[in-house]
Amino acid sequence: MYVKICGLSEPEHVATAVEAGADAIGFVLTRSPRRITPERAAELAAQVPGHVLTVGVFRGEAPETVRAAALTAGVRAVQLHGTHPHGDFTALKDLGVTLIRAVDAQADLRCGAFDEDLLLVDAPHAGSGRQWEWAAVRGRASGRWMLAGGLAPGNVREAIEAAGPWGVDVSSGVETSPGVKDSRLIEEFLRNARG
Ligand SMILES: O=C(O)c1ccccc1N[C@@H]1O[C@H](COP(=O)(O)O)[C@@H](O)[C@H]1O
């Protein structure tokens, strides 16, 4: 099971996620309680080994804004939330990073439909920590797709069984309050996600 830990802002939590076996870690570079600057993301990304994907998370920004922030941060993937047209993904292809299309369950759920490399199926309000009806996407989402939205150490197994994703992504569920990560919860999430 591919696991992404998102919304990291402290070196200690980046180290915990890497050591506990995360496949990807995310830095929020858009309006959010978890927002960090691209410069801060670059400092954190520098401590991440090459086998772990570093992801810049955006919501509704224009491709040029995403490009500039991703280059400053030095991330190897960008995750675009919001109603981006296909052309936004095409415009970012030459950046040479992994493109992640983040949508809710009403969208086209075929990974690759917008030329993205990974699909993320999330709650309508990304980053809110709210659960939604994960089972509604079972058999509808296809390809390399991650489930997100209200996941936590205590429910990630149930979510995987309900939706059948290729991977999972968490932010709020490994925090003690919005934007404050907890190393013990990060480790527990990774353990439970892998069963
Ligand atoms: O985390 C945020 O604040 C955020 C802001 C804007 C866009 C996406 C955001 N987070 C993404 O939301 C999902 C899961 O969130 P949660 O576990 O329900 O809190 C994850 O993909 C984050 O990257």
Automatic annotation (TrEMBL):
Reaction(s) catalysed (UniProt annotation): N-(5-phospho-beta-D-ribosyl)anthranilate = 1-(2-carboxyphenylamino)-1-deoxy-D-ribulose 5-phosphate
Source species taxonomy: Bacteria, Bacillati, Actinomycetota, Actinomycetes, Streptosporangiales
GO terms of biological process kind: L-tryptophan biosynthetic process
Residue span(s) of domain N-(5'phosphoribosyl) anthranilate isomerase (PRAI): 3-191
UniProt KW keywords: Amino-acid biosynthesis, Aromatic amino acid biosynthesis, Isomerase, Tryptophan biosynthesis
Protein's name in the database: N-(5'-phosphoribosyl)anthranilate isomerase
Pathway: Amino-acid biosynthesis; L-tryptophan biosynthesis; L-tryptophan from chorismate: step 3/5
Superkingdom of the source species: Bacteria
Enzyme Commission number(s) of this protein: 5.3.1.24
